[in-house]
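Render this sequence as a predicted structure.
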Amino acid sequence: MYLAKSNIAPKPLKGSLEIKNNDFKAVLMDSTLSFKPFVTHLKNMLKDEPAVKSEFYRFVIEKFENEMKGNGSAVLARDSVRYKELMELVYMILTPLATSEKEHFWALSTPIPDKIFFSTDGFYQFFSEQTSDGQALNLSPVQDYKKQQIQFMYRLVLERLYNIPSLIKNEILYQYTDAVTNLPKFYHINTDTRFIDILLKGKLPVLDYKMIEPYLQQGADTTELENILPLNRFRFEGFSVITLLDVTIERATEIIKEALVNHSYETEGNQAIIQALKTLAGDDAIDFGLIPSYQINGKYVFAGTECSQSMMIEAVKKFGLTEEAFNTLVNQYYTNPQTVVYNNITNGHLSDKPLGKLLDTEGISSYALVPVFYNKKMAGILEVFSKRGVSLDDALFSRLQTALPLIAQLLKYNTDEFNAKIDTIIRDKFTPLQPSVQWKFNEAAWNYLEKSTHSETGAEIETVTFEKVHPLYGAIDIRNSTFERNRAVREDIRKQLALLTETFQSIKSLIELETMETFVCACSRWADEINGYLTSEDELALNRFLAAEVNPFLIRIREEYPVTKDVVDFYFAALLESTGLAFENRRKLESSLQLINTSVTSYIENAQKALKSAYPFYFEKFRTDGIEYDMYIGQSMAPDKPFDNIYLKNLRLWQLMSMAEITRLTEKLLPQMQHPLRTTQLIFIHSNPININFRNDERRFDVEGAYNIRYEIIKKRIDKALVRESGERLTQPGKIALVYFNDSEAEEYEDYIQDLQEMGFLNHDLEYLELEELQGVAGLKAIRIGVNYL
């Protein structure tokens, strides 16, 4: 819940404080401050608490009942001084005894928190320091306060009286700038509603959860809900407990995470990351720079725009240190990366070093290089520096430790994007685009060239976009590929252990060695593990045992006892991935996967090439365990050639027919497979056209706009779809599954199915299915039809 514009005074407050909002007062006309729910809570606690606590609770209960005798259950907030001792008891029970009131931000307010009447010294001091006039503090926009309080009350009513839990916490994130450090600080303001009773006036209305669910979201308009369930039918009695928790470190770390998730770590996003690091450091006089590990042909390089946050690189460019000297300096550091700290630079003790001169000229008084690793590889360097005489110490670096894994990921992303840009240039210069879209890129390149010629500030290349194109998506997946891969690994390990046991037995027959029996027993134990459930941790432990103990032992035996050479060599020959017995099942599996993918890819490429003569379209396939592809067709892809729906219909018919032929093809491959595998076929029907953009960073087309992105999300999730009620996987070997939303989308394909049935491609076993809800996707349906193998 929210604290609104409110006066704060020392504990206890002398007089209640109220929001000046006439509209809201009409809603809150039946909210009463009372200690009755708190006393009831203590009485319930008596049943389970040990004797010492029970006695104390009885004393508190008696104290409250005696003090309130004759006054009823209601208490006026303006009488807080009168009940100071009772409120002290509330604080004593609800907080640990060792808690310092100067450090604990805690307060009591009316049931619907618009008046604060009691607080700790820390709570009062915290807010009084932030109010410029000493009278008011605004933690929430006034225009939003009514909505926030109404939502607060509805959450209470629905949870208590309708057992409808709320997904929204009774807390807000409060931010302010610390006057001492000039850095942001973050607090969670939480409202505890345990000591609020809700009294009903009249009969409780019946509610349909589906009908009211849209009004329960954060920030939703509750106007309609107020008509369905008027709040004046309820009375709120009790008090709220408000606490503030310092989450500055957590929030600063979260800011970095958000930049990573949103890929907003350039320019403004990078500034937010730097600011978050300053917050973690706790000193605005400390600054930071980032240097990603960019390499070209194995040598570290420093791209100007990508390294613009680096103080060192900016200084190098500013003061003209030769590139050769700078690269030598940095490459030496990368050879032996470690944290390097320079304090008191301005006293001249580094004047004989290039880096020292550079820092001193730039006015840096303290400077540190911190190597950052991602998966044990150097991801880049974090610079820590100050121009205000701040000393960089262990305490500072300890505060930064929580952010280093995120900084490592950030630098890794930067490096990946840099590599992608290099690859893009290579592909742009040496890899031709498909003719259906080549013309658009030619126009974009020409426009860019024209702008660059006449512009002094530099030009940006336009985004290549195709509007209102019809998407077609298909996927040919290997059935249970993960399971088959795991089974192959297990069988290979079992063979290797059996061979290893035979090897040790053969060595025993040739030489006498007491330690041999130990290895034989270990192999036996591992063989038993393999027959049971083998976890990934067990597999890693087995590999360590083989690599660190078995292999060195066999090599030593072979060297010391030449008579064992043939036996040991035979075992090691079995470990060769290309020919060895210990990889036989994995080779067979990979051979089968390769056979399927090569055959399917060849079929698709040959078939889609033949279609291009009808009307230009864009085709893009992706390799997973199977094959996925996207196709786009529409007027914007060939502006000079009139588009007709007949082209789209032909493409859809081809897609369905090709899926049938691919199913036949992969089934015919079974006798050639060393490890039999079957495929499933999936089509997603999307009748509405979408817009696509060419993403220069990923060198592929991607959808544009919220509605179109939903199409992409559904595409990625439907392969796991289950049939409602039966729970079986939608995709099945020997069948084609077509997923859609609206029945009208399926009608066109029903005609295609009938045509292909008459042609002998499909069986007469058409199924209409409803699918279980996927994450964020509901209402999906599917057609499933068997393929005729004859």
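Summary. The mean pLDDT is 79. The longest helix spans residues 481-510.
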